[in-house]
Design brief:
By secondary structure, this protein is an alpha/beta fold. It has helices spanning 19-30, 53-62, 76-90, 124-142, 176-184, 212-226, 245-256, 280-286, 294-307, and strands at 10-14, 34-39, 67-70, 94-100, 147-153, 155-157, 191-194, 206-207, 209-211, 232-237, 243-244, 262-265, 274-275. Helix 1 (19-30) packs parallel to helix 2 (53-62) and helix 1 packs across helix 6. The structure holds uridine-diphosphate-N-acetylglucosamine (UD1). Uridine-diphosphate-N-acetylglucosamine binds next to helix 4, helix 5 and strand 7.
Amino acid sequence: MSRAGAMAEKVLVTGGAGYIGSHTVLELLEAGYTPVVIDNFHNAIRGEGSMPESLRRVQELTGRSVEFEEMDILDQAALQCLFKKIMRVHGVKNLVFSSSATVYGKPQYLPLDESHPTGSCTNPYGKSKFFIEEMIQDLCQADKTWNAVLLRYFNPIGAHASGHIGEDPQGIPNNLMPYVSQVAIGRREALNVFGNDYDTEDGTGIRDYIHVVDLAKGHIAALRKLKEQCGCRIYNLGTGTGYSVLQMVQAMEKASGKKIPYKVVARREGDVAACYANPSLALEELGWTAALGLDRMCEDLWRWQKQNPSGFSSQA
Ligand code: UD1
């Protein structure tokens, strides 16, 4: 959410202590915005004082301070108070929504463009993203003073080039690359490859992996778009290139110099064979395109993993 003004523009970032959030807060600071972050520490580690460790490091990296408030966006009273304080008072009617390529469900064609049908999602997470997309679109339709950019993320991986912030999932990672990097560092024995009988070149699932810093920069481009009173716009944030699970394992072996053992197990329910973006609309209308390739994604992921073998927690 952003507010026009002569001073540094304030942007409220929900979940800003997390993986994508912290990288986006860093890019916002570097682009001259003033982010105000709320987070409930669901997937974040506490640092000194009341600050999440990820944002403490963002402050260190940028030399700027971050406004942070611990809050659960399900806490209606607290949220209403914040909205009164920040949104209505300042007349905020601009939103950037973090959506997901998962709203497309099982692809009917590839690459996925923004007009591909949405809604037949295979998991509740995807369904919730779909519902919120619908609500925001209705809102913008009904009240033309609202503007929104819905960003459909593909698969963000990698970390900030400094290696100081990165992805730190709690417990056993669900997603491929955090798992792969924990195998590389020796925290886990072997990767389970969820099926090698898909209709793809090597039989394993294909996804559009995008560097998290590219993804974060996509939000800056979206904020610029809101300035045009754009109404509701939807953009894929992906690279347009798909890689298989085994290609990702290979790329990470190259970046880390470590052997990454894996075993093939059954397919995971709800997984699709292949999913990758047509990212051309974001280039045309936002002037945004992914700049960092697979090698950089894996090198940066490895640097983060090596420097922080147990993530943001200090114990080894
Ligand atoms: C998953 C979520 C999706 C969410 C996205 C966020 C499911 C079914 N989908 O998507 O809702 O938007 O993360 O990034 O949970 N793989 C393995 N072994 C593993 C982990 C993954 O082989 O231990 C494979 C998967 O089968 C898939 C690929 O790696 O082919 C990528 O998996 P993942 O990182 O979980 O992302 P998505 O499946 O795209």
